[in-house]
Specification:
The complex is a heterodimer of chains A (110) and B (537). Chain A is built from four helices and two strands, in the order E-E-H-H-H-H. Chain A has a two-stranded antiparallel sheet with strand order 1-2. Chain A is flat, with a radius of gyration of 27 Å. Chain B is 72% helix and 5% strand. The chains are: A mainly alpha (110), B mainly alpha (537). The interface between A and B is large, with 48 and 70 residues.
């Protein structure tokens, strides 16, 4: 009911969940050993933004375009290439169909 | 308990939605609610019929139905024949569930739209077309159902006619579909011209792998792969999925998968006899290349390109639905990867004679791929429904403009989390089980390909974590303070899919053994598909 053979191994979600429960118990034990000296509602709990003032909460939301900026910037060349391919022009879509058809013909038929 | 299934059951699963489609405009004249109830009733009945037929096929074997004739198979077959095997019913189950869920969701989601009689009529026509594609045993009939599916899909993509981009997407879809269908028709003509037959089983039995057969194979595979959305022929897919109403995007997922079914049927059944035929003898490398090998490696290359391009493009998108569409392209890549591994894993051993070796992991790869069809349909389907819920509540799909919605839409947030984890292949949800099989088998063929597949899955997780943060987390935005949770019918639809995802994730063996393995076996043991018709005389 739970186990499937994957060819060179197996997958059992029940076993996996058991591991997760054990991991959480270990995590909880480690957490409970931590320091309990933090003081509620003091300077200690305020966010420190390198000395900059804290903006209003609604202005603090990081926009989607800003996430993973470093990753996307590092493969910018690839994005430039992909963007050139995605022209939105339907005749280009057909062109790619013809190209793939030609490749299959050369390798499989001729 | 023994259930007796009537002979005409394969025809009934297409006839019921077709009848519903013709009756819907009439019932619509009475009352909108009665019409909605009628469409749901028709689809409930049809889903029940599909399940009954599935039970029968998986228990007793292939079912055939000849239109307008006695049920004894006599050659030459000049009538339309439906031949339903485990793979057909597997696809039938996916299609029926997705359409039913989508129509339940539509009740509230499309409530304020006009022209709903046409909307529901087209959905039922599309259902009949898709079920016909997966049930038919006749190549020309397959083309007819492909056309029905394409025309109904095009009209539904462009349903929001007040959005110029929807009409543009519909236009692009019909151009791509028409060209694909024309090439399918041309290849059917090539086969008919040689073998004087249109029946898949008869063609498969007779096929000689002549020059024209090779041309027909290439045309069929490439045209249907384009309809399935494989890179670089995928570009219509984000346009169509992104601009159609969310309910239609869900149904389009199953339409795309029906085209993938076409690819599988062509490769493994129609050309099943010739996959192990040696087509190249490369002497200096001392290897013999078979049809399955060159086809398999080409499919693997396109599949890896689909996974890479799909995931990397998804990461950069700021439109929620377009992002899901690119993720769907990546998921299509995973399915094709398993198919490619099955084909490419077979090799010729040069011993005392020529021995064709079928390594065990090849068949497992195909099973993983078939399993992933079901998982992808549910995962991507759920994400599209969540996108619909967000649009319904906020009239916005730009990730840059959304935020903090978890406070107002708690259930939708939970459903998105389930969809996110499932589509990214996170354990213990359903996507993980099928992807694990694909990873392992791909790794056995070529470790680098396996590693790419795993890394792209992690990238997909990162992409959807971004979406989760952008839409649901963060401080409450003033413009969305009044946003409320979506109506119950929409929550019910999302809840059912989420429930199925969790069920398959926790009990994978039930689905894998009873539905997936018989479906994959039906493709691998193609001879039973042939002998049911040819051996019946």
């Amino acid at each position: 009911m739970f186990t499937i053979e994957t060819g060179s191994g197996f997958w059992n979600p029940l076993l996996w969940m058991l591991c997760i429960v054990v991991a959480f118990i270990v995590f909880y034990i480690i957490r409970s050993l931590g320091s309990k000296e933090y003081k509620k509602d003091t300077e200690q709990v305020k966010a420190f933004l390198s000395g900059n003032p804290e903006y209003a909460k609604e202005h603090m939301h990081v926009k989607s375009s800003n996430l993973y900026w470093g990753f996307t910037e590092s493969i910018k060349f690839f994005y430039t290439f992909l963007r050139k391919l995605h022209t939105g022009n339907v005749s280009d879509y057909i062109l790619f169909f013809v190209i793939i058809l030609a490749i299959f013909f050369i390798i499989g038929v001729i | 308990m023994t259930i007796t299934i009537p002979d005409y059951m394969p025809a009934l699963i297409v006839a019921v939605p077709l009848l519903g489609a013709f009756l819907t405009p009439l019932i619509s004249k009475i009352n909108g609610k009665i019409r909605n109830g009628f469409v749901i009733f028709i689809l409930l009945v049809n889903t029940a019929l599909v399940f009954l037929l599935s039970y029968d096929v998986i228990t007793n074997g292939i079912r055939t139905y000849i239109f307008g004739s006695s049920q004894e198979v006599t050659l030459p077959i000049v009538r339309i024949l439906f031949e339903v095997d485990a793979m057909s019913v597997f696809m039938g189950i996916i299609i029926s569930i997705l359409v039913l869920i989508s129509v339940i969701y539509s009740w509230a989601f499309m409530e304020k739209n006009t022209g709903l009689d046409k909307y529901y009529t087209l959905i039922l026509l599309l259902t009949a077309g898709m079920l016909g594609m997966v049930s038919t045993g006749d190549m020309f009939n397959f083309f007819v159902f492909l056309e029905i599916t394409s025309i109904a899909s095009c009209a539904l993509i462009a349903f929001w006619t007040h959005h110029a981009e929807s009409i543009e997407a519909g236009f692009k879809y019909i151009v791509i579909s028409s060209i694909g269908a024309l090439f399918v028709l041309f290849s059917i003509a090539l086969l008919y011209g040689q073998y004087d037959a249109l029946n898949i089983a008869i063609l498969s039995d007779a096929i000689q792998y002549t020059f024209l057969d090779k041309v027909a194979l290439v045309l069929l595979v490439v045209a249907l792969a384009m309809k399935a959305g494989i890179v670089p022929m995928h570009m219509w897919l984000p346009d169509s999925y992104g601009k159609a109403p969310s309910t239609i995007s869900v149904i389009l997922v199953s339409a795309t998968l029906a085209s993938l079914y076409g690819v599988l049927r062509v490769i493994f059944t129609l050309y099943g006899n010739v996959l192990d035929v040696v087509t190249r003898d490369i002497e200096f490398l001392n290897i013999k290349v078979m049809t399955g090998q060159w086809l398999g490696w080409l499919i693997i290359l396109l599949a890896i390109a689909s996974i890479l391009v799909g995931v990397i493009m998804a990461l950069r998108q700021t439109d929620f639905k377009r992002l899901i569409a690119f993720a769907a392209v990546a998921e299509i890549g995973y399915m094709f990867l398993g198919v490619g591994v099955r084909l490419a894993s077979v090799f010729v051993e040069n011993g005392n004679g020529l021995t064709v070796v079928h390594p065990g992991f090849g068949d497992t790869a195909l099973q993983g791929s078939v399993f992933h069809i079901m998982n992808d349909a549910l995962d991507v389907g759920l994400l599209f429904l969540v996108a619909g819920a967000i649009y319904y509540a906020t009239r916005e799909l730009s990730l840059d403009k959304l935020g903090g919605l978890a406070r107002n839409m708690k259930y939708t947030t939970i459903f998105f989390l389930i969809g996110l984890l499932a589509v990214s292949g996170m354990p213990p949800l359903n996507g993980f089980a099928s992807k694990l099989i694909i990873y392992e088998t791909t790794f056995q063929l070529n470790p680098i390909l396996g590693i790419i597949a795993i890394l792209c899955s992690i990238l997909l997780l990162a992409t959807f974590v971004k979406v989760f943060h952008s839409i649901f987390l963060g401080p409450p935005l003033p413009q969305y303070k009044e946003v409320k949770e979506v109506p119950k019918s929409m929550l019910l639809a999302m809840g059912v899919i989420a429930g199925l995802i969790i069920f398959i994730g926790l009990f994978p063996e039930i689905i894998y053994t009873n539905i997936v393995q018989p479906a994959a076996d039906a493709l691998i043991n193609y001879s039973s598909y042939i002998t049911t018709v040819v051996g019946g005389i």
